[in-house]
Amino acid sequence: MYTLFGMTGESFGVPRRSERKPVRKAVVLVIESEDPEARFEGTTVDVSEHGARVQADTVLTPGQTLSLLQDEDPAHALHCTVVWAGDIGSDGSDHMGLEFLEHPPTAPEN
């Protein structure tokens, strides 16, 4: 079981590694570069245990690494890599698929 972006879920036998759930949350993308201004606002479209689809007004390249910050929890960044960007699997060129490089926070078991 995992908790991410205020949702709790479990992975079941779905065609993907983990189930995607629609979640619209404001996020900040911090691109790993020497430019301290490499911060962009975005919105999640859907999230899963392993990644997220994000809409943002920037063009990223597959393979780039970044930190994903949630407005309600800016101290806990999720480190990600861009898996795809553009029209592949999206509704437009401003969407990108991110894969989490570490496991998201887990919910305590009761």
Describe the fold and architecture.
The chain is an all-beta fold. The protein is 0% helix and 49% strand.
Entry keywords:
single chain, about 110 residues, mainly beta, Thrombin, subunit H, six-stranded antiparallel beta barrel, two-stranded antiparallel ribbon, about 50% strand, disordered C terminus
What's the quick description here?
The chain is built from no helices and nine strands.
Biggest sheet strand order reads 4-5-6-9-8-7
CATH homologous superfamily identity = predicted glycosyltransferase like domains
CATH topology: Thrombin, subunit H
Number of strands: 9
Number of helices: 0
Mean pLDDT: 78
Broad shape? globular
Fraction of residues in helix = under 10%
**Cα gyration radius (Å):** 14 Å
CATH architecture: Beta Barrel
Q: Indicate the structural class.
A: mainly beta
The biggest sheet, with number of strands, parallel, antiparallel or mixed sense and barrel status, is: 6 strands, antiparallel, barrel
Poorly predicted segments: 106-110
Broad CATH class:
Mainly Beta
N-end to C-end Cα span: 11 Å
